[in-house]
Structure formats: structure tokens, C-alpha cells
Amino acid sequence: METPNNATISAKIAEESVTCDESIKGYVEPRFECPICLTWLRDPVLTTCGHKFCSQCIYTWLEKEGACCPVDSRPLKSGSDLFRDLYTSREISQKRTTCPYRQFGCQVELSPVDMETHISQCTYRRNLLESQVQNTNNAMSAESKLWDPPPKNGTQITDREEPSPDWQQLLKNLYERIVVLEQENRELSITVSNQKNQLAIMCLRNCNGVYIWRLKSFQEKLTAMINDPLKMFYSPGFYTSQNGYKICARINISSKNSNYLSLLLHIMKSENDDALDWPFNGTMYFVLVHPQDTEKNICEITSSRPDLEAFRKPTCELNKRSFGYTEFVHVCDISNFLQHDSLIFRIEVRAHNLRYS
């Protein structure tokens, strides 16, 4: 029986390393991937906004990055908005993957999460690492030669037609580095996206009750509303002041006359409600902006009525009752206000019963 030489051992180690990388760090089903660490979900939790994270990842994120979801930036409270996802945990635990050292004799089959713990203790892995130590000096020497300049006489090195095992190990190291950089880039992209969302929220909070609502691709929206009279479009929530009332606008085909477009307001639930006066007392301005001539703007002004449910303190995300104009503009006149297939509304809400509104 022939005794395997160092090159054979190195080749096996390189082959084993690639297999390990594919099994543990390779493809993860999207529904089982944590958006923060980008690996298999560990002790998964589900947020009230419908996203899954590793328990440790999301709690650390909320503590360091602020109490908001990393995916959609919705506010999250660690005590009330996170729930253990036992169903997903069972799904992952029922999956089986073989040990990457199986070709060397290990017959263990475990879930992807448990497999990482097993690998650190695998007897076959330790045996291979001991063999690898014997070739460390040769590997370092080969790696250093990779950066040597080519011979000045232009001669070709003919004894390297195929990558040696040490080349394979170096390529693997470079591949792993690329994976790490891609992960860091993805995390950075998520951070930038969250910062943009936070900036947009700050703008809505500090608009002092004046919101410019630009509805792009309006013809498509109008067609959808005509085909489905129950179809509605809502604006983002904006505030009458930094710590004031939260409002959103709504458009839809009028339920009274299908030839008209309705423009209405909803009072939304906010973190300030317990400190505000109810029912809401204020004045509302509705303006459909003409793109060429402001004198052709359609303007309507109205005041709140304390007896209406629409102005009471919200008990859900937004008041079920709205207030505004059910026949604000005739559908046939909409084309006169379109520019680049966009429609622009200016909504102004002034609260009267807040001294510093």
C-alpha cells in the first residue's frame, strides 16, 4: 500500500474545505435567512410587521440601532412586538445536512444550525487539521511566491499548468473574503436605507401640517379605481407639528357619484395622542394644484366638527371615519391637472386647541 504524500494530503484538505464552505456558508433558503447576519435563523423570532430574525440579532439591533425594524423601519418594542417563531424553528430543526467531513468517515447528519457546533468538535476534522499543520510551511511559501513578478526574460513557467493544492487554498481564502465583503456591503445598504427612511419620517414630522402629496403614474391609479370602486390610495402620515396630530389623506372614486373623485382626511394613531386635546379642533385646506396656472387651482376650506367620530381620538391605526369632500373634482377634469402623469395635492391642517401647534 502506498503512503499518501504531502501533496495528496493537501489536496484532500483543499477538497474538504470547499465542501465545508458549500454546506455551511453556502445557499440558505430566503425564508430561513436572518436579514441581519445573513445565515440560518437561530432561535427565530417574528415581528409584528411580519419579518423573521435571529433572537440575538434583533435584540442587539434594537438596543444599538434604535427601536425600529431593520427591514421596513417600523417602530418595534422588544417587550411587545417580538414573538418566538416555534413553527420556523421546527422547520429548520427538521432539515438534515451531512457533515462536510463525510468523505473522511464522519456519518453524522444534523440540522444546519446544529451542524456548525458539531463541526467544531468533529474528530475527523481534528485529524485533518493535524495533517494540515505538517504542510503549513509549504503553503506559506507557495502563497508568497504568488506575488513574485514574472521573469524579465519572458520565459514561461511550464511546471504550473494546473493549480496546486496551495493555490486552491489561497483561492478559497480569497473567496471567503469576498463573501465577507459582500455581507458587509449588504449590511451597509440596509443601514443607508434605514437612514433614508428615518429622514423621510423626520420630514413628515416637521412639515407643520403642510403636506405636498405627489401621486405618480396617476392614470394607472385612476384606471384601478374606476375598475374597482372600493380601491383607495393613502398618503403617508404627516404631523400638524413636531408633537401634534398625525394625519393622512385618501383619494378614491366617490361612492355618491362615480364621476367624481373624493379627497378625504383620516386622523391616525400616534405616540402623542395621550397628551393632545380631543376631539380634534382645527381647519383643513384642500388644494389640487394646477401645473401651469395657480389661479386655476381647486381650493376648498373646511373646519372640524367635534360631534363627528372622524375627529375623536383614534383607537386603531387610523380612524375608520374620514372627513373631507366626497365630490372634490370631476374625473373628466383630472387631465387638466396632470403633468408627467403626476397629480399634486397640497393638504394643510391647522390645529386650534394646541398653544404650540
Automatic annotation (TrEMBL):
InterPro entries: MATH/TRAF_dom, TRAF-like, TRAF1-6_MATH_dom, Znf_C3HC4_RING-type, Znf_RING, Znf_RING/FYVE/PHD, Znf_RING_CS. It is found in: Cytoplasm. One of its GO terms (molecular function) is ubiquitin protein ligase activity. The keyword Membrane does not apply. The keyword Coiled coil applies. One of its GO terms (biological process) is regulation of canonical NF-kappaB signal transduction. Residues 141-163 are annotated as: Disordered. It comes from Lasius platythorax. It comes from the Eukaryota. This is TNF receptor-associated factor 6. Residues 34-73 form the RING-type domain.
